[in-house]
Design goal:
63% helix, mainly alpha, globular, Hypothetical protein af1432
């Protein structure tokens, strides 16, 4: 359930992000929005289109990049996912949402990750949680996040999404886990 505290934190951090010109997305062919616009686009997409998990998907989208305010440094946002996870925990988001937020940047360069690395990621993502629901939530965030990028960025993210799904399905099989319905 989205509480007043969660909603207020989201709005307050977005307002702060809008005040900081250093929180612009780096000039890159994959970015055509500033950070606040990106977060809003991802949240909108989660509300309107990605409904496999429901409200937890919206919460995950709302908080996934809020840590960028704390981590912006000359156009980079290194470790923003860890800062975003901390903010999510401080605001009482469910463990599954916090875990997905904390690992949401992991998917970059998925084509270069070994099968062993993917298995390690799946174990880290799902440890103590329902693997099907957690992977589905991760997929929902990936899909919504792709909509927050430029057309070129969207195309690349959806390519990564396909590769990620294939590699995670194989890793879940190797780990003896049932697949997410979305794999």
């Amino acid at each position: 359930m989205i509480t007043d505290k969660m909603h207020n934190t989201y709005n307050e951090i977005l307002a702060e992000i809008r005040k900081h010109p250093t929180c612009m997305m780096p000039a890159h062919k994959f970015h055509d929005r500033n950070t606040a616009e990106h977060i809003e686009a991802v949240t909108f997409d989660a509300r309107e289109h990605v409904r496999h998990i429901g409200e937890i998907g919206v919460l995950t989208a709302m908080f996934h990049d809020l840590g960028k305010l704390e981590t912006h440094n000359e156009g980079t946002f290194r470790k923003h996912d860890a800062a975003s996870e901390r903010i999510a925990r401080e605001n009482g988001l469910p463990e599954m949402a916090c875990r997905v937020i904390g690992l949401h940047s992991w998917v970059y360069n998925i084509d270069q990750v070994s099968p062993k690395g993917v298995r390690k990621f799946v174990r880290r993502l799902t440890d103590g949680l329902d693997p099907q629901e957690t992977v589905t939530l991760y997929l929902d965030l990936m899909e919504a996040d792709a909509h927050g990028f430029s057309p070129a960025g969207y195309a690349q993210r959806m390519k990564d999404y396909g590769t990620f799904k294939e590699k995670v399905a194989l890793a879940m099989t190797e780990l003896g886990m049932e697949h997410s319905k979305r794999l």
